[in-house]
Structure formats: structure tokens, C-alpha cells
Amino acid sequence: MIKQIRLFLAACGSAAIFLGFASVVSSQELPKGGTVKAVPNTKGPLRIAFLSFQNNPFFFPVRDGALAAAKYLKEQNTTVDYTVLGDNLTAEAVVGGIETAIAKKYNGIVVVPIFDGTARIIDEAVDAGIPVGNIIAEGATPSKRLFFIGQDAKAAGEQIGKFIEQKTGGTGKVGVITGYFGATQHNDRMNGAIDYLKKACPKIEIIGPFENQDKAEVAYSLTQDMLTRHPDLKIVYVTAGGPFGAAKAVEDQKLVGKVGVVGFDHTPENLEHLKDRRDDRAARPGTFSASL
Predict the structure, then answer these.
(1) Quick check: 277 and 290 in contact, CB under 8 A?
(2) Whole-model pTM above 0.90?
(3) Which of 88, 179, 221, 227 has the greatest number of beta carbons closer than 10 A?
(4) pLDDT digit string, tens, across residues 42-55
């Protein structure tokens, strides 16, 4: 499994820095997972809007990190308001969330912008004197955001492509399930792998891509359908949320050790199937199974 860069406390810790606190580092102990210490707040009460989504287990540690940061920064006279923009990722939700944060005059914003069409509102916030930090994924259009904490999605996709080449020997059928066709990060992960495979492995046939909107149950159904239509399928690549759904479909079809699943994110749901893969390989050397 390829690790995605985890935000945990880093985003809010960075937010505390970019809001312009004094240079003396606080002696307060960082929460578990935190990497950036806050500095004493000499500005008076400060408020940070943390705008995220909640549509699959990946966002649970994001939420936990934001809440831990809120507790940590409370002693610095700083409030972190964690807000869920919804369970359906859209550019409109991001724009609406930032517009609300601007209207409420927050001192800083941390956001998951993920789509093209969000740069304009980020620039409006910055022009209004509100620094913005982007996390996890952002659109392709440059904005005035102060920083981005996340993954090079195109390179990550290419890395997946190389892994698929290694496991398939450069031939056979590979199914592709993406999260949202309109999400820049998902597209980059998808195209990073597909573009590599088309160039390096012309004998590989791509089945799809299909969209699961980050839902494991949809990934399950799509994988079941692909396995039925293409009994010679070798690997299913899930670019975003829900790879454990695809792995469950492989298990239910009793194809562990014959069909692989590759994807992202160290969530408990995914790691359970990674454990299964390791057990299977120990029992049957030379095979690969539902893997994440």
C-alpha cells in the first residue's frame, strides 16, 4: 500500500504559525501525531476555520487531528472550528464553506479544496486578509494559498502503474475505479497510472475507469461486475476512497491470491485486507491477493 501524506496536526500547527504569532516556541507538549509546535499568541483571540469532508473512513483521522489541534491551541487563546462540508465532495461545498468563513471573519482557514473552481474563493479570502492553507488535495489552478500539505498525486499514480507492471508482467486486464471524475487529485492518480501503463505496457487492457464517489459499497459492486464480465481480470486499482470494498468483492468471489487490489490510505478498513494479503502470501508463495 502506498502511504498518503497524513495531515493530523501538521495543518493546524502550520495555521498557528502563519497567523503571525511571536517567535518564542511554546513549551506546551504536542498531541500525539503533532509535528509543529505553536508559538505564544500575542494577537488576542484568534479563530481558525477547519473545513473538511466526511464521506469515507479516510477523513476520520483528519477529524481527529483537527479536534486534537483545537484542544492544543485552546491554551493559546485560539479556537479551531472543525466544520464538515458534507458527505458529497463538490466544488460548490468548498466555495460555500469559505464564503461563510469570510463572512464570519475568521483569522485563518484550513480547507480541502480538491476541485478546480475553488481557487477564486481562496484568493478572495486571502485578499480579505485571511490566510488559507490547503490540505490533502487541491485543484490544478494556482491560488494565493499560503501552503499545501498533501501528495504529488500524478507521481503516486505512476508509482501504482509501476507496481501493476511488476505484478502483471505487463499484460492482462486492469480495472480502474476512481472517486470523482471531477476531482483533480483523483484524476491525477488515475491518469498517472494509466498514462504510464499505456506507454510502458501496451499489452495491458484498461477496464473502465468507473466512478464510485469514494464509497466502498459502490467499489464493491463495480468490482463484482468487472469480475463477472472479465474473469481474467488481474488487478483492480481504486484511486481514492473505498478500496476495501473492492478487496471484499475479491474475497467474496474467492479470488484472493488471483486478483489484486491496489489503492491508498492506512485506514483500519484497508489494513485489515493488507493483513489478509500478507497471510495469504505466506501460505502461497508466488501469488498476490487482495492488496492495498
Answers:
(1) yes
(2) no
(3) 179
(4) 889 999 999 999 98
